[in-house]
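lol forgot to send this yesterday, sorry. struct tokens for the thing we talked abt
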């Protein structure tokens, strides 16, 4: 009898925990944690997508699970059978995760797993005839799902996929545990121009421009230094500053060429702080601002003597192109590059 009472209590508690009030309370708690709960929120979003994905397949009458997609897709586009290790490497999943998915796919008769004559320790995996036929029913669902996800992601930010790529690359290059133990006490912030920051433009760019033209500043350079807002803002451009320990240590100018394209001047960073990856942050801010303004192209011009900057540009998708008519090329510029947005 006591056991029955305890069981009823547990059932009631579980029901209470599933109530909208408790779910809302838990969501509010997670949101208040901010970045600390970042991984938790990514997982929660991911789980929702998987649950909704399963519903899509079920409503369409297709025996398929959202968690099968990466493994199934790799097999669908493969020209020959693959080993479990080959599948894992292509989608960056653990060996055991791929093995578990394959077990479910085999149970659903969607894959064929055979002995590998070249290596007795591994198996060769391919889609079965049933698995191959299923592709034709899955493709329309994938297209609809992709379009829906695009709308959802872009409601958060128009450049969301590139943001995900940068996050992915960041934690691949430097795992979170390494970052935590090695991070500096202060971080770099990128801020928009405001009148009170105009003097920093002069302080940073003046010596640099003087050096570039052998001590002789052109009249138009002087105007840009004293009034940085005039040559950029009038035509719909932007200025961004990098702030480190409450000190302005770099800037970049984003000039509007026309309704659908921008040009950014090569970022200038105080040499003392160039090891803080500030240039990357300034370039990324320019790309994001262009995306927010529905631009189609982002142009730049650069001298050939800064190959390290060229690597940064190329990593973000810039390619060398002939200059557009609307761009005024500086004498010291030897290379014109463009990013299609």
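and heres what i got for the seq, position by position
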């Amino acid at each position: 009898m006591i056991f029955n009472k305890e069981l009823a209590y547990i059932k009631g508690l579980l029901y209470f925990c599933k109530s909208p009030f408790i779910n809302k309370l838990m969501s509010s708690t997670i949101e208040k944690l901010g970045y600390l709960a970042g991984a938790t929120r990514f997982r929660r979003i991911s789980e929702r997508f998987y649950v909704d994905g399963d519903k899509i397949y079920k409503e369409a009458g297709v025996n398929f699970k959202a968690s099968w997609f990466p493994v199934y897709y790799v097999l669908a586009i493969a020209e020959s059978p693959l080993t479990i290790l080959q599948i894992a490497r292509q989608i960056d999943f653990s060996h055991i995760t791929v093995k578990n998915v394959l077990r479910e796919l085999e149970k659903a008769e969607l894959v064929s797993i055979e002995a590998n004559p070249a290596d007795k320790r591994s198996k060769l995996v391919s889609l079965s005839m049933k698995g191959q036929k299923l592709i034709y029913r899955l493709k329309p669902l994938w297209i609809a799902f992709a379009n829906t996800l695009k709308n959802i992601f872009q409601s958060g930010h128009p450049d969301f996929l590139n943001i995900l790529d940068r996050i992915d690359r960041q934690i691949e290059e430097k795992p979170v545990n390494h970052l935590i133990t090695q991070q500096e006490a202060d971080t770099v912030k990128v801020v928009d121009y405001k009148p009170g920051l105009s003097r920093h433009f002069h302080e940073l760019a003046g010596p640099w421009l003087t050096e570039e033209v052998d001590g002789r500043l052109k009249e138009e350079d002087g105007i840009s230094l004293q009034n940085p807002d005039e040559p950029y803002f009038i035509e719909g451009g932007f200025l961004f500053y990098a702030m480190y320990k409450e000190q302005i240590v770099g800037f970049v100018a984003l000039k509007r060429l026309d309704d659908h394209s921008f040009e950014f001047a090569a970022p200038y960073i105080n040499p003392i702080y160039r090891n803080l990856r500030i240039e990357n942050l300034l370039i990324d801010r320019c790309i994001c601002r262009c995306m927010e303004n529905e631009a189609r192209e982002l142009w730049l011009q650069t001298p050939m003597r800064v190959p390290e900057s060229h690597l940064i540009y190329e990593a973000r998708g810039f390619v060398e192109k002939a200059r557009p008519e609307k761009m005024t090329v500086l004498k010291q510029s030897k290379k014109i590059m463009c990013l299609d947005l």
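The first strand starts at residue 111 and ends at 115. anyway ping me if u want another try
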